[in-house]
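Hey,
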Amino acid sequence: MGKLSTVSKKGQTTIPQEVRKSLDLHEGDHIVFEIADDGSAILRKVRAEDEARDWMKSIEMTLAPEWSRDDDDDL
């Protein structure tokens, strides 16, 4: 069985120390909750490369149209 934590009235919880150690979590780190179809959840640390990919996706539509042309590889 996993480690138990309680959710507060504000929806906050404390990640147990053993889990923080296992995930190498430190102040300022980002975490993500992934929800499965069966209602279970997985907590994981967001890696720097995940954040970079998400940032690139967020600005993708602001890039000049010529940067995403189909014939870019031909130039």
